[in-house]
Amino acid sequence: NAIYHGIEPLLTGGLIKIELWIERDLLNIMITNPVPEMPTKARHKGNKIAMDNIRERLAQHFGNKATLQAFEQFGNYHVKIRMPLIKG
Questions:
Q1: Paired sense of beta strands 26-34 and 67-73, if any
Q2: How far apart are CA 58 and CA 82, in angstroms?
Q3: Three-class SS string for the chain?
Q4: Cross-strand pairs, 22
Q5: pTM to 2 decimals?
Q6: Whole-angstrom distance between the N-terminal and C-terminal Cα of the chain?
């Protein structure tokens, strides 16, 4: 999604940033990509099925202990996933 919706529409390309960090017993993953200023009409805006699918998989595996948040801020699109660390 970050490539298709964020990078491909940009004539000059762009950067996808992936951050990982641990807070207490939770793994945090933040994926950030630029939001094109002028979306082209030829590109599909998306219907959020991929994000809903990820939310559902997280819920099936971790219950309410995992979350997925998506938000736009300062010209970037961010997806933050939090899930418990599994100690094996």
A1: unpaired
A2: 9
A3: CHHHHHHCCCCCCCCCEEEEEEECCEEEEEEEEECCCCCCCCCCCCCCHHHHHHHHHHHHHHHHHCEEEEEEECCEEEEEEEEECCCC
A4: 27
A5: 0.77
A6: 31
18 half-sphere exposure, CB direction, 13 A CA radius: 3
In tens, the pLDDT along 10-67 reads: 777 788 899 999 999 999 999 998 887 765 555 556 666 888 999 999 999 999 999 9
State the number of CA atoms in the 13 A half-sphere of 27 facing the CB: 10
Q: What pLDDT, on a 0 to 100 scale, did the predictor assign at position 46? A: 61
Q: Which residue has the higher pLDDT, 49 or 1?
A: 49
Using CB atoms within 10 Å of the CB of residue 63, give its burial: 0 to 12 exposed, 13 to 18 middle, 19+ buried. Answer: exposed
